[in-house]
Design goal:
497 residues; mainly alpha; three-stranded antiparallel β-sheet; two-stranded antiparallel ribbon; globular
């Protein structure tokens, strides 16, 4: 694309919708061109990000379902061990054994959990394909990736929809310390990083049985969620923080009748194991909390139960190293794989000056000159590619299997980042020859099924002034409508944002 003179509002609108949003829907570039920067800034408000539409379980309800599944798994295992030898064939159909019935119950519970989670992912993709608040949606995806909890572990997978709805979306334009606390204390994160298994060696529970400290959550908070690997912490800081986080767990089955109110000893012990309930399925289990004061990054924290870990997390969230590291990640995600030092510094100043007010940081990003350079320098991930294709065509994903299969084939399965580092964010990770072939195969399938439309008009509606003459000509000269749609989806301009 060749331009002379200052960028037009139409070009800025295309940049706003494709770089900061999830892609342009038909007619959206014209609608946003009146005030592209205002369109972005208006989405950075205390209301948080829009929620997927549907009737979905809360974390508390999902925990009950997951505990049922765990009980059925244990019962199936026990029934299998205790099963009697199969009697000789009598010519009559034998009734189902206890082991078979227990296994069937376990399979049904697992199937329900998996299907519910898949429905949530479809609703999330449908929101991405239809929302008018594309910047808020992309901003949400960024922070969900910073605080990665992955479906690679089944115990976390069944909470992924709740995690985004309860911990991420409501907090993405609030203070970073609040977002961090909501993410780190959610069942998805606690189960993904095995925090619910961590027991203080000198806690009441630790003194009664062999149990160990688990440092996964403490380490990932320091390394990935806040100050970073070069943030000056040591292994001793990881261990001390892990001790402070002992007791952070998920809610149990309830406190029992009369627990804590003069009930019997059994009820009181059950209440101690279940812990004190908190928000979104969190519970603090004082019985496994390591007593004593802690020192992390040179700062001392008095003994204080659940508040000790919260205080450390708050301080980490507000450190300058955290601001610098996450400012760079924002610049890399939204603007370029190698962003300018000026952009990173501007975002860091907005962060520190507002004490981590993410709405202020979002507006600083939306108003910086580097953010409006016309060249598209970021390669879309497979999820972004699929969602933006639906937006360009004015459609929405309708079936879970097709969506999941496409993402698996292109290397980004639903909610299943390969590690706590999250999905990679540079062209080298997504633009290899094999990856492009898989995108082409999907684009061909979409082209064959695309609604009857003028593919050139579709490309112009999705890219506006970002559509180059060469790509427009290729689309216009295609031998069929299906080929024209495929060429548009695989054009360099559409593959980038």
């Amino acid at each position: 694309m060749t331009r002379t003179g200052p960028p037009s509002r139409s070009l800025d609108a295309a940049v706003a919708l494709t770089r900061f949003g999830m892609g342009a829907k038909p007619g959206e570039i014209a609608a946003v061109s009146a005030d592209p920067r205002g369109w972005l800034e208006a989405q950075a408000g205390p209301q948080g990000a829009p929620q997927p539409q549907g009737e979905f379980e809360t974390s508390e309800a999902r925990l009950e379902q997951y505990r049922d599944y765990q009980r059925e798994t244990a019962q199936a295992r026990m029934a299998r061990r205790e099963a009697e030898p199969t009697p000789a064939m009598t010519g009559e159909a034998a009734p189902p054994s206890q082991a078979e019935m227990a296994l069937d119950a376990r399979r049904a519970s697992r199937r329900d959990l998996v299907q519910d989670t898949a429905r949530e992912f479809l609703a999330r993709a449908q929101l991405g394909a239809t929302t008018h608040a594309g910047f808020a949606e992309r901003w949400t995806l960024f922070w969900a990736n910073v605080f990665t909890a992955s479906a690679t572990k089944f115990q976390a997978a069944v909470f992924m929809g709740q995690y985004e709805r309860e911990a991420i979306r409501p907090n993405v334009f609030g203070r970073f310390e609040d977002l961090a606390l909501a993410a780190e204390s959610h069942p998805a994160m606690l189960l993904y990083l095995d925090q619910a298994q961590s027991v203080g060696p000198n806690s009441p529970a630790g003194e009664r049985r062999q149990a160990g400290l688990n440092e996964n959550l403490a380490r990932e908070i320091l390394e990935l969620h806040t100050v970073g690997a070069d943030g000056g912490y040591t292994q001793a800081d990881v261990t001390e923080f892990a001790r402070a986080l002992t007791g952070w767990s998920t809610a149990g089955q309830g406190r029992g009748r009369g627990a804590g109110q003069g009930g019997g000893g059994r009820e009181r012990r059950a209440a101690m194991r279940a812990g004190e309930p908190g928000e979104n399925g969190f519970a603090f289990r004082a019985v496994v909390h390591e007593p004593g004061e802690r020192t992390v990054l040179g700062r001392r924290y008095p003994a204080g139960g659940v508040d000790q870990g919260r205080a450390i997390l708050k301080d980490l969230a507000n450190r300058r190293e955290t601001a610098r590291r996450l400012a760079r990640k924002l610049a890399v995600h939204f603007v370029a794989d190698a962003p300018s030092p000026e952009l990173i510094s501007a975002l860091e100043r907005a962060w520190t000056g507002s004490r981590g007010d993410l709405a202020v940081v979002a507006k600083a990003l939306a108003t910086h000159p580097d953010s409006w350079m016309p060249e598209a320098r970021k390669v879309k991930t497979p999820y972004e590619f699929i969602v933006s294709a639906h937006r360009a065509m004015g459609t929405s994903p309708r079936r879970v299997p097709q969506l999941q299969q496409a993402l698996v084939q292109m290397g980004q399965p639903a909610w299943a980042a390969p590690s706590p580092e999250g999905w990679p964010d540079t062209a080298a990770d997504w633009a290899g020859p094999d990856a492009l072939v898989k995108r082409l195969n999907w684009a061909k399938t979409v082209g064959d099924a695309a609604p009857a439309a003028d593919a050139v008009a579709m490309a112009e509606g999705a890219l506006g002034e970002r559509l180059g003459d060469r790509s427009r000509q290729f689309v216009a000269r295609a031998e069929s409508r299906a080929e024209a749609v495929t060429l548009f989806l695989m054009s360099p301009e559409f593959q980038r944002r």
